[in-house]
Amino acid sequence: MEKEPYKMKSNFAACVILYHPKKEDIANLFTYCSKVEKVYIFDNTEGKSNEKIFIGMENVSYFWDGENKGLSIRLNEACQRAIADNFDYLLTMDQDSSFLEENIDRYFKDILNFKGKEKVALYGLEYSKNDINDTTENYIEVDHLITSASVMNLKLYNEIGGFDENLFIDGVDIDYCYSALTKGFKNIKFARNFFNHSLGVRTRRGSIFTLYLIKKNVSVHSSLRVYYMYRNMLYIKNKYENVIPDIIKEFVKNQKHQVNKNIKYSNEFFTILKYKRKAVDDFNNKKMGKLHNLI
Predict the structure, then answer these.
(1) Model's pTM, two decimal places?
(2) How far apart are CA 261 and CA 18, in angstroms?
């Protein structure tokens, strides 16, 4: 039994993509870095390196080139490095996510002991303890998992095809999961375990349709984020609707709901409509990747 932690640790690497990290974001990294053999840090912060923060951390490899290359490119870089370093599993983390020690220990053990793990593309957890109750199953098959706290089976990465670099941000994780499903693989959520994940800042806003008189607590995104949400939704729909039509129908419904909520409660009503229109135009004209010319 004494050898189990080392054996478990040597199977796993982790990666996190930073973007103008705060002190608390760096603190999050310490909740899992000692549980893996190596942590690949890709810093998307433009113009300024944060390398000095990680000096002295022996199992950390830090990468920075002064550019924000989004998520898909960095995740592919992390996977390819982890495969070259002979890891079996890669834990992918957002900078605002963290673990309790007992949760990550249990998570990795459950993965190693999972029956049929050779057919599982990704594993994931619930976002918080509040999502778990006495009737919750130990694990469930799901259509998709978010990037943060997912563990990738790197033996299947090349067959699945990696992360689609047309997407830049938003939908990157969903696309990978859908690609895995089309190859006959599974996405597994351990539904009685959780990690700490930030679901975004909720603000009290009124809707333009009620002349901002009736206020609600809502989570809204920037106009640029809405652009990526809508353009990438159209792209993913086009990519998979003939292969997994029922899943795509539900995905499109949910994405449109999120976009419409942002339009309804945004303080930039006309700007957000322009970005939505541009999302449609760019998709139709096959302009994907990073948006360089802002409105």
Answers:
(1) 0.92
(2) 28
